[in-house]
């Protein structure tokens, strides 16, 4: 063994308290217990000291060291054993170069190498001020293994992302993309699209609204793992692809949240396959309409929706009367074309929200929802649509050079709620369709006979009403409007229909039919002309009647006519009536449509001197803001409030409020439906100035 203590003058501390110097701890023992291997070279490069650790790390035999060999011999020995690889002279050259350089510059030289035994050592050469060197060795085998392991792992990860269709991503603590790796990301050239941005800042076709991103943002805010978030995106080249991303939060060694990492995947193929499956499973391949399965499903949903809304829905069953004949005569291809044409015509005539299906063969079905809360009204609307369908299907078409005409037989049934089985609804509509077949085909029939009767009655009424106008069966009645002294100051014109068989028909029965059929327009014009003629006649007659006003009810449809202002002007001009005596009564429902257009028209007429009254006030939706903007001269308190005025404090309060409101808006108020002296008195006390009702006079021929 070499005596270390005597060979290390420069390495031993100078302090008098030093346990080594003081002799309390032998230097050799101390150095042998270090975790660092030490090799000491004298100024000539002889190995003059080696501690226990160095011998073990470098695996140098004692026999080699005992003679204090030159470093060159040790290096040669190491090359022979395979510790150092390469040409000996070249290695020696390098060794001496480093030794000299450390001495010259006074800086340690650090290097790493792996022994034949597989140890990785980090050596540090330090020059001793008095001459010679110390080489210190630290075993870094484990660290080197770790580095190698990490490098391998990184390479494995890279080959994975290169080879697979998935990619890897990282977000920072703000949710911004900081890293995107993978072949597809490069191919799609999407990295620039994302880097520095949050996922929710890059547009996705399937999530157009900010709230669509709420679940992902919440998961992020709550540091939750999220899986398979599907995003449809448009690439730079215009291609539309589907991505799916999954991610998990990442924390640093101190448990601080640093962001997210995860994988992305292209799921476009899967999405396309799903869409195809969906199409095959739910749509009829010939026409693109819903197939039976999907339609039944919709029908169930419609039942649930109608139960919630209280609105009636209808199922129309459509069967082509002569499909078989056309098929037999012109072949299947022609038959298919016909079915496709019928499907298209159905699409053209029903609303976008209605559901159309083909149950098979030439059987089509149409589902109409939200028709009306009133069954009869709903039936009427369903009938209206079915008639449109019938007319559309019936239109002739040319198939392969032949003109063919397919007529439909249509059955309708109404339903609301989900108390009955879907199959029962279908059966009812099917049965109704057979009724229309037996009624001579190319017809529409209801399943319910009462409904059928009601619809027929209404259709008859509509037809008769058309004749009424032509044949002069309409009459204009008037009901007096009085002031607080019960003096007549004007009249309200009310329409009557003198039916040749039914007698006098109430407007409550025929106005809705006229509204729906559009007949209200010529009828309204007739009323206007009559009213103006009446005003002119009163003026001519002189006396107090010359001062009377005449109020005419307007349908919202009339006011929506683009030429409405001109029509009214023509009416009073042609009759020679004073427009200041003409009052036009509107209902609040009018305010639901294009309010700006209404105001413009009203102002144009008001400029001619015509006055406007708001009818049935209090029963509708009037917004006070609109009320202020409309050029109104009068509010009419609806008769439902007047009726119970004396018994119901709420009604009295409403009447009083309307009066106060009108006063502040500088409008007159007419109380409608005054039937008793007590009501008259009460209203007068509240400050009402104008009255109308049976108490003063029933409507009578003008
Ligand atoms: N219970 C009760 N009722 C009273 C009393 N005083 C008057 N009435 C009735 O109340 C209705 C007042 O007309 P409205 O509210 O404008 O309601 C009118 C109006 O909305 C509409 N209408 C009538 N004529 C026309 C018209 O020429 N054009 C348009 N578009 N609608 C009209 O038909 C509705 C019903 O008219 P009518 O049957 O004539 O019914 C009239 C009238 O007869 C009363 O003291 N007690």
Automatic annotation (TrEMBL):
Residues 311-449 form the GGDEF domain. PROSITE patterns: EAL (PS50883), GGDEF (PS50887), PAC (PS50113). This is Putative signaling protein. Residues 227-279 form the PAC domain. It comes from the Bacteria. It catalyses: 3',3'-c-di-GMP + H2O = 5'-phosphoguanylyl(3'->5')guanosine + H(+). CDD domains: EAL (cd01948), GGDEF (cd01949), PAS (cd00130). Gene3D superfamilies: 3.30.70.270, EAL domain, PAS domain. Residues 458-702 form the EAL domain. The lineage of its organism: Bacteria, Pseudomonadati, Pseudomonadota, Betaproteobacteria, Burkholderiales. One of its GO terms (molecular function) is cyclic-guanylate-specific phosphodiesterase activity. InterPro entries: Biofilm_reg_signaling, EAL_dom, EAL_sf, GGDEF_dom, Nucleotide_cyclase, PAC, PAS, PAS-assoc_C. GO terms for biological process: cellular response to nitric oxide. Pfam families: EAL, GGDEF, PAS_4, PAS_7.
């Amino acid at each position: 063994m070499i005596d270390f203590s005597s060979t290390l003058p420069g390495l031993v501390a100078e302090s008098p308290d030093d346990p080594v110097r003081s002799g309390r701890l032998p230097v050799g023992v101390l150095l042998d217990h270090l975790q660092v291997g030490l090799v000491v070279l004298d100024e000539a490069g002889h190995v003059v000291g080696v501690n226990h650790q160095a011998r073990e790390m470098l695996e140098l035999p004692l026999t080699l060291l005992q003679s204090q060999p030159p470093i060159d011999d040790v290096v040669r020995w190491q090359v022979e054993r395979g510790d150092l690889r390469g040409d000996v002279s070249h290695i020696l050259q390098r060794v001496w170069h480093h030794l000299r350089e450390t001495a010259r510059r006074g800086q340690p030289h650090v290097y790493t190498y792996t022994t034949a035994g597989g140890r990785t050592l980090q050596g540090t050469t330090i020059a001793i001020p008095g001459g010679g060197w110390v080489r210190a060795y630290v075993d870094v085998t484990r660290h080197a293994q770790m580095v190698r392991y990490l490098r391998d792992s990184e390479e494995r990860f890279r080959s994975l992302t290169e080879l697979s269709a998935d990619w890897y991503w990282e977000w920072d603590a703000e949710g911004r993309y900081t890293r995107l790796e993978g072949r597809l990301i490069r191919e799609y050239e999407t990295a620039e699209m994302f880097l520095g941005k949050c996922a929710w800042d890059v547009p996705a076709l399937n999530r157009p609204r900010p709230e669509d991103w709420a679940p992902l943002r919440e998961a992020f805010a709550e540091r939750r793992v999220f899986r398979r978030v599907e995003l449809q995106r448009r690439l730079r080249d215009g291609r539309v692809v589907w991505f799916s991303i999954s991610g998990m939060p990442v924390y640093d060694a101190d448990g601080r949240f640093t962001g997210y990492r995860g994988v992305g995947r292209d799921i476009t193929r899967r999405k396309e396959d799903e869409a195809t499956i969906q199409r095959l499973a739910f749509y009829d391949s010939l026409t693109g309409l819903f197939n039976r399965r999907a339609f039944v499903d919709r029908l169930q949903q419609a039942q649930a929706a109608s139960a919630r809304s209280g609105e009636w829905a209808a199922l129309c069953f459509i069967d082509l009367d002569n499909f078989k004949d056309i098929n037999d005569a012109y072949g299947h291809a022609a038959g298919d074309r016909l079915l496709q044409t019928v499907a298209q015509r159905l699409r053209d005539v029903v609303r976008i929200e209605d559901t159309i299906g083909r149950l098979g063969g030439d059987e089509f079905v149409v589902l109409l929802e939200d028709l009306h809360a009133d069954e009869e009204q709903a039936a009427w609307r369903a009938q209206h649509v079915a008639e449109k369908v019938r007319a559309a299907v019936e239109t002739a078409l040319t198939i392969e050079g032949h003109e063919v005409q397919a007529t439909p037989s249509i059955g309708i049934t109404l339903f609301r709620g989900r108390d009955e089985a879907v199959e029962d609804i279908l059966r009812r509509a099917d049965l109704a369709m057979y009724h229309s077949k037996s009624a001579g085909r190319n017809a529409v029939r209801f399943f319910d006979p009462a409904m059928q009767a009601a619809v027929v009655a209404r259709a008859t009424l509509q037809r008769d009403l058309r004749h009424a106008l032509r044949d002069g069966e309409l009459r204009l009645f008037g009901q007096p409007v009085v002031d607080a002294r019960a003096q007549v100051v004007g009249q309200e014109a009310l329409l009557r229909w003198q039916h040749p068989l039914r007698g006098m028909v109430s407007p409550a029965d025929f106005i809705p039919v006229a509204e729906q059929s559009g007949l209200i327009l010529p009828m309204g014009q007739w009323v206007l002309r009559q009213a103006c003629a009446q005003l002119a006649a009163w003026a001519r007659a002189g006396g107090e009647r010359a001062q009377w006003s005449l109020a005419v009810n307007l349908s919202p449809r009339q006011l929506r006519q683009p030429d409405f202002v001109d029509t009214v002007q023509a009416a009073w001009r042609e009759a020679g009536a004073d427009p200041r005596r003409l009052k036009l009564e509107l209902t609040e429902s009018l305010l639901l449509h294009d309010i700006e257009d209404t105001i413009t028209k009203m102002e144009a007429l008001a400029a001619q001197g015509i006055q406007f009254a708001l009818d049935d006030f209090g029963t509708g939706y009037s917004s006070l803001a609109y009320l202020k903007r409309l050029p109104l001269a009068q509010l009419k308190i609806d008769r439902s409030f007047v009726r119970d005025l004396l018994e119901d404090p709420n009604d009295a309060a409403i009447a009083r409020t309307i009066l106060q409101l009108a006063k502040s808006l500088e409008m007159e108020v007419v109380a409608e439906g005054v039937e008793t002296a007590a009501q008259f008195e009460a209203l007068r006390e509240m400050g009402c100035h104008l009255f109308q009702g049976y108490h003063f006079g029933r409507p009578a021929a003008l």
